[in-house]
Write a structure and sequence with these properties.
about 280 residues, 12 helices, alpha/beta
């Protein structure tokens, strides 16, 4: 889609708030409530509304309990992440009220991660040919970019990027990203991948053989194009790789109703907003 002009903005709230919390000074109210992360987030939201004038906005939040589906598959999923500071948690809680008072829709569902919510909403909007942009630094969302769904990395200076960004960033096309992520794993989320196989080898394997299942088949069949040492790594960690693929694939089939009109931007209640 040339001159991409999104109507629907899907925002990863936690990503913004975490980044602002660590990057901005520890600003506090006269009551001692830390608000530095909220200040940065609000400034960006107002700037985005003024400059982009979106028709629809969904501000997506992670919910307590993380992703139930992934935790069932791998109980240690994201278990190594340290608990956020209380000062950040209090701002995350207040952010929902702030977003609603600004006239925007908060989207959160127990046991569902924000990137799955974003996938669901953007893909449903795309069915109606409504262009969406994902405002996030999360690499997982690159796997469903298409002509109607672009990414705006962290809402920064890079601007909107379409499906070609997947090849630029990772070296493979969009439809191979679940395979790529499954092979390289993700230490931050405890996703195992194939031990000893890095990004460069993952790209080479995908270019030679295709999807993860094809790569495993090549290793099982002693394919001459596969070095024995690499084939052994694949066979040793076959189970972890297949599990990793299940973990990295975003879930667009959530049990949620979808009506685009629910995400229409409303004028803020100025009195309430000012008080807040």
């Amino acid at each position: 889609m040339k001159n991409f002009s999104p109507q629907f903005f899907l925002i990863d709230a936690h990503g913004f708030l975490h980044r602002n919390y660590h990057a901005l000074p520890k600003l506090s109210t006269s009551f001692g409530q830390e608000v530095g992360a909220l200040y940065g987030f609000l400034r960006w939201l107002i700037k985005m509304l003024r400059e982009q004038n979106p028709a629809y906005v969904a501000v997506c939040f992670d919910s307590p309990g993380g992703c139930a589906r992934r935790k069932t598959l791998l109980p240690s999923y994201k278990a190594n992440r340290k608990k956020p500071d209380d000062a950040l948690i209090s701002q995350l809680d207040l952010a929902r009220e702030l977003v609603e008072t600004l006239g925007l829709r908060v989207v959160a569902q127990q046991g569902i991660e924000a990137d799955d919510l974003m996938a669901f909403l953007a893909l449903n909007a795309a069915k109606q040919q409504v262009p969406s942009v994902l405002v996030t630094s999360d690499k997982d969302v690159y796997q469903f970019l298409n002509e109607y769904i672009h990414i705006w990395p962290s809402g920064g200076k890079d601007g909107f990027k379409g499906p070609e960004a997947a090849k630029e960033k990772f070296g493979v096309e969009v439809h191979f990203l679940p395979d790529y992520f499954a092979i390289v794993g993700d230490a931050a989320d405890n996703i195992p991948g194939i031990k000893g196989v890095g990004p460069k080898s993952a790209v080479d394997l995908i270019q030679k053989f295709g999807h993860l299942e094809d790569i495993i088949r090549a290793a099982q069949n002693d394919n001459p194009d596969l070095k024995p040492a690499l084939a052994q790594k694949i066979l040793t960690h076959e189970g972890e790789a297949l599990l990793s693929k299940q973990l990295v694939v975003l879930d667009p089939d959530l049990k949620m109703a979808f009506s685009l009109d629910d995400y229409r931007v409303h004028s803020p209640d100025k009195e309430k907003l000012s008080a807040l």
